[in-house]
Amino acid sequence: PLVPIEKIVSLCKRRGFVYPNSEIYGGVAGIYDFGPLGVELRNNIRRFWWWSMVQTHDNVVGIEGATITHPRVWEASGHVENFVDKLVDCKKCKRRFRTDHLDPVNLEQHKCPVCGGELTSEPRVFNLLMETYLGVVEGDRMKTYLRGEACQNIYLDYDNVLKSSRMQIPFGICQIGKAYRNEVTPGNFLFRQREFEQWDLQFFVHPTEMEKWFEYWKEYRFKWYQTILNHKDRLRFHAHGKDELAHYAKQAFDIEYRTILGWQEWEGIHWRQDWDLSRHSQYSGQDLSYVDPLTKEKYIPWIVETSGGVDRTFLNLLLDAYEEEPDPTGKDPRTVLRLHPWLAPVKVAVFPLQKNKEELVSTAKAIHKDLQRYMVSQYDDVAAIGRRYRRQDEIGTPFCVTVDFQTLEDQTVTIRERDGMTQQRIAISELTMYLLERVTW
Ligand code: ATP
Fold first, then answer.
1. Could you point out which of 223, 316, 356, 429 has its C-alpha 20 to 30 Å from the C-alpha of 28?
2. 309 Cα to the center of ligand 1, angstroms
């Protein structure tokens, strides 16, 4: 069954993954903060992406750009003119709808999909860029924008990277970073926010090699998502139809994932041709063409883009991992997050069987301290062992280690695994290696 978003919202708040931003002031729609477990999960997700996109590709490098840029960037990119949402309102129930999210039939008949009331016929148009001002002196202040998409920095830094990193075409630049949009219909928790994070690859190629690299990255990104999912059958490609394609794009695909919200975009694979570098050449006056060192051919590189969201990954992974299952011992159902061990915020929890036995406690604390050199470990001695397992299951901790009386005799511990709840004994001296092999990619 598909997990209701409310279950995730509630777990996130209760266990410290995600909080509403400025909650004590009543909150701000579409803005969230990440708590102690959320920040660990988020960092793991980011690091896994970075490792597989940048560190294991010899022809890809990374940058981290600022979230404020020269305002002309957003004229060149087309955002000042075209980055708009069109809204229609229901005259009866007062709900607002983005025209591109409405069923075309409802739009044509001006009929509200919720209450059946009449929709306004002329859509209202809103630009999504968030404005900000640089400088302090009135009159000298320059209006600019918080970046509406992170990838623009990659085009802006393209020439510097080329000259400073010894890259040659074909090569790519990656970035993970925040983007800001005045979304008119924020909602569904982390799915549509006003401040969120994107990961982008822009891969620069010779036009004759465009097709080949487009195919490579399309497949690579699909497999990447499959690797970290339990429900791999909920992942699919959506090919953009003629009416959805940008004028320069020969093809484009969304990687979609099915949740309670239906099939929704998770990442876009885009054929950007020479659009971005040509526009920035034109608007900045700097020629961004590439000269092939061997053939001396001069051309504007074409671009394959893969652009996804860190927050959608965070949300989709929780929706994918969450499960309530009957307890085999017949008590309350067990809530378990089947997060991939690579991504789980806590890798291992260490328990003394009893907290009033000094030797058990000191041995468990020593094991915990040692494991902390390599991974996130939690020490817990509160309540019965069963309750401690439950607490860890709910946050996705893949392994729990218990120090008991046998440990004091033979230096072995029990290791209990989250998904199958199986237990085995293992020597303390082998514990670190056993865990490292399972929690690192
Ligand atoms: P949509 O049509 O849903 O508004 P988009 O096509 O404008 O999305 P892109 O501009 O291609 O999205 O952004 C790339 C990725 O960034 C998306 O696939 C998504 O994962 C993420 N993303 C975009 N907008 C948001 C948002 N408001 N909140 C969270 N993530 C977002």
1. 316
2. 7
Q: Is the CB of 192 under 6 A from ligand 1?
A: yes
Do 194 and 343 have their domain in common?
Answer: no
From the CB of 183, is ligand 1 less than 6 Å away?
yes
- Split into its structural domains, the chain has a count of 2
Q: 268 CB less than 6 Å from ligand 1?
A: yes
- Which residue, by CA, sits nearest to atom 19 of ligand 1? 309
**Could you give the dihedral angle defined by the CA atoms of residues 429, 432, 437 and 441, in that order, rounded to the nearest 10 degrees?**
-160
Report yes or no on 60 lying in a domain: yes
CATH number, domain of 388, equals: 3.40.50.800
How many whole angstroms from 221 Cα to the centroid of ligand 1?
16
Same domain, 41 and 150: yes
Q: How far apart are CA 194 and CA 177, in angstroms?
A: 14
Which of 79, 196, 244 has most ligand 1 atoms within 8 Å of its beta carbon, as the pocket-test mutant? 196
Residues 2, 259: contact at Cβ < 8 Å? yes
Q: For the whole model, what pTM was predicted?
A: 0.95
Compute how many other C-beta atoms are within 10 angstroms of the C-beta atom of residue 307.
19
Same domain, 254 and 402: no
197 lines ligand 1 (CB under 6 A): no
Structure tokens at 370: 């040692």
Render the burial of 88-127: b for 16+ CB within 10 Å, e for the rest: bbbeeeeeebbbeebeeebbeeebbeeeeeebeeebeeeb
- In angstroms, the CA 77 to CA 154 distance is 12
* 396 belongs to a structural domain: yes
C-alpha 16 – ligand 1 centre gap (Å): 25
Q: What is the pLDDT along the chain (441 residues), one digit of tens a residue?
A: 899 999 999 999 999 999 999 999 999 999 999 999 999 999 999 999 999 999 999 999 999 999 999 999 999 999 999 999 999 999 999 998 889 888 888 888 999 999 999 999 899 999 999 999 998 887 788 999 999 999 999 999 999 999 999 899 999 999 999 999 999 889 999 999 999 999 999 999 999 999 999 999 999 999 999 999 999 999 999 999 998 898 899 999 999 999 999 999 999 999 999 999 999 999 999 999 999 999 999 999 999 999 999 999 999 999 999 999 987 776 778 999 999 999 999 999 999 999 999 999 999 999 999 999 999 999 999 999 999 999 999 999 999 999 999 999 999 999 999 999 999 999 999 999 999 999 999
What is the ipTM score, two decimals? Answer: 0.97
316 lines ligand 1 (CB under 6 A): no
